Amino acid sequence: MTWPTGPDGWATPPASPRSAAVPGQPDGPAGGAPAGPAGEAATGPAGGAPTGPAWAPANPTEQALAEALASGDQANYFRILSNAELYLPQFLTAPPEGQQFVTVNMFGQTFLPVFTSIEAMVVAQVSAVAGGYVLTTYPELRRKWPMPQWRLAVNPGTPIDAYVEIGAVERAALGELALPTAGELILDAAAEEAATGALPAVEVDADEALADAASQGDIDGYVRILLDSVVVLPTARPVPDASALFEPDFPWRVTGSSIEVFTSTAALQRAHPVPPPSIRVSFPILLVRWPEGRGMSVNPGSATGVEIPADQVRMLLLWADEDL
User: What is the rounded distance in angstroms from the CA atom of residue 31 to the CA atom of residue 130?
Assistant: First the structure.
């Protein structure tokens, strides 16, 4: 199946102090997608994206957020966030029925992402989906919060990320609420999946459903199935389980410029008769930890295979949600 380059024709809104297009971004899949891990809240750096050369603080706010997380000062992190200028991604063309939000879906929760710089939006690849942004603040977000059940994702895809209920920001800033790290929250969700026996069922269903989607050239259906799947990730050396993804020296097994991912153990064995070491991990968790600059090769050499360019991998978390 051939991966699309994305639709043409992103509109450019008039520049203003409150709204603008993200400059120089490639086209990507259109549509909103829901956001972040389950639980009341979570913060980096343990749950942040890989801290490779692609990310660095873009302004004093991000430098202060990084320092607060490095020192374990969550209250200061949220105090800084409460007073920061925030970039809220937006679609450049609104649907006929009104505003459509960019969101991220993980573990049955919907998150509205905000960023503390345009550079952070670029690292997270959200700009390729949304194309533009509106400037806002935490107090304004809280006053205008669109859906009570949604949660806030701060700088997702960066080492200074946080996943939190909108009202918890103020409580955390006052030191009234201690939050788990994003890594702890994600790993708890993965452990719950394993404990409930979800992993084997998802693997079997994914292979069958992906084959059907691939035979029809249904990219949208293919991605939606992946986002609900547990996949097999080959590694360069054995590791105990998916928790190793949060270690800085995780042994990614790189083939050319890509990393292979398989939708079942059987798919791995078909490609590698002598299988390399591997782990099983929920696909959204893998996207959060995906290393910068590496493409994804899903089921290489098979009828369900697809090659996803490096600049579009993390963007899959923001895949269109037609229900929003």
Answer: 8
